[in-house]
Amino acid sequence: MSESISPNTTIAQYTIVSKIGEGGMGEVYRARDTKLGRDVAIKVLPAAFSENSERLRRFEQEAQAAGALNHPNILSIYHIGTHQGAPYIVSELLEGETLRERMVSGALPQRKATDYALQIAQGLAAAHEKGIVHRDIKPDNIFITDDGRVKILDFGLAKLTSASDGVPSQTEVPTRKVNTDPGTVMGTMGYMSPEQLKGQPADHRSDIFSFGAILYEMLSGRRAFRGDSMAETMSAILREDPPDLSETNKTVSPALERVVRHCLEKNPAERFHSARDLAFAIESLSGSATISGQTATMPTITGYGRRFGPSAAFVGAALFFKSFLERGTRPVAYFQSSAGTVFQQYAAGRGDHLARW
Predict the structure, then answer these.
(1) Model pLDDT, residue 341
(2) Active-site residue, 136 included
(3) 70 and 112 co-located in one domain
(4) Which end of the chain is less congested by CB atoms within 10 angstroms, N or C?
(5) Catalytic residue among 33, 136, 154, 277
């Protein structure tokens, strides 16, 4: 299949409607699922490319990685197969635009940027909890649907690490065979983490760095790291901090800027320890946080003074303000648990519990 597929061509149970686009990893078509009566997207790797073992490996890796995931903020994969020697992936059909296209006119409003950031973080958390690291998070791989839903695309560079539960799924097992070798630089310049540039092992915290670069760009309208040459861009990622967001957008809250800075730490150990922690921090900026599917609004110190007395109120206030005085920390999160009231402080993204009752 060396040429584009013509409309009305049948691939398995799918009828090609039109070509949507193409990229380095293949061509994308709009198709109709004749069995389920729905429109889908089919990504096909042309036969000429499928003869390249590296491209074929990358294509299969994308399907395996994405197929292991089921989350509203990650592109859903329906089917994988081969047609006339060319492998293809069938996924949900998205209507909208990429984040890159959305930002063409500059910075996004803080509320909108925060909304997108939270959805991206939640999608990453779902992938990371399956042991899957994306490794190529960038605006081109973030899609915004017409109804405002964020979808993470293209797991073509995904790497599967040890899942949190230690038990790989059937889909995850073969993905282990296509991990990249140490010393290989994979990713997109400008959004790669320092460890990626150095060819060092990249875990979920590398995605968090790339996320920080995207959030910075959404808020400022400028790339966090960009030089006149590839060498200058690499040097900036390795050695420099991006300009303060306040220089380009004075409406950005200091708390949100601290979240961005925390993501962009050069040392992975100094970033948020997980995308779940990151999502919690972003959600907390709006004054509420979702915990196990329930939303708990942060009450005032006065309310806690009435419930627990002056001592509890004083301790709560001290912890709250301490979190803001320390660079890069997140606010104290107050919430109710089945065991009682919990005061919990995640310090500098490390998940340290400062106090618990």
Answers:
(1) 29
(2) yes
(3) no
(4) C
(5) 136
